[in-house]
Amino acid sequence: MSCNGFALSINIEQPSALGVHLLSLLTKKNMQKKTASFIFFLLLLVVSYACTKQASSLATAENSQAIVGKVLYTGSVAADGCGYIISAKGKRLKPVNLDQAFRQNGLDILFTYQVSNQEFSCGMQATKLTTVDILSIKKR
User: Which residues does 86 contact at the CB level (< 8 Å), separation at least 6?
Assistant: First the structure.
């Protein structure tokens, strides 16, 4: 092809070193952008999940009123029991910090709690209980 005396020659069958280099740069940049976007999306997702989980567990403690419950002794954990648990609103909760003064089977209590991130399984059937941190507690 010529234009005003200048000749331009393009050989499609054998790309020049510059063309190959430009193509590889474009491909690398495209992959880097996609990778960076994917990592950013994953990071955003993780942060979002962590913030919602923390906010929901704090809401139990801050926004709730005291709950009526009953302390129950289900037997020693060593003998396939679950130790002291609290039965409240149809749930069985495993307190991680139940004061010795409240470790009485059948004791009616009024308490507030925050869901703990610990897991607790007990008994021969490996019953899973929600673990809780007692924030306030008093006898009813």
Answer: 69, 70, 71, 72, 92, 93, 94, 95, 98, 109, 111, 132
Buried b / exposed e across 49-67, counting CB within 10 Å, b at 16+? eeeeeeeeeeebeeeeeeb
Question: Alpha carbon 1 to chain centroid distance?
Answer: 64
What's the token pair of residue 131?
A: 């673990």
Residues 110/57, Cβ–Cβ less than 8 Å: no
Q: What is the DSSP letter of 66?
A: P
Tell whether pTM > 0.85.
Answer: no
Q: Quick: pLDDT tens for 70-113.
A: 999 999 988 889 999 999 999 999 999 999 999 999 999 999 99
For residue 85, report the phi and psi dihedrals to the nearest 5 degrees.
Answer: -130, 170
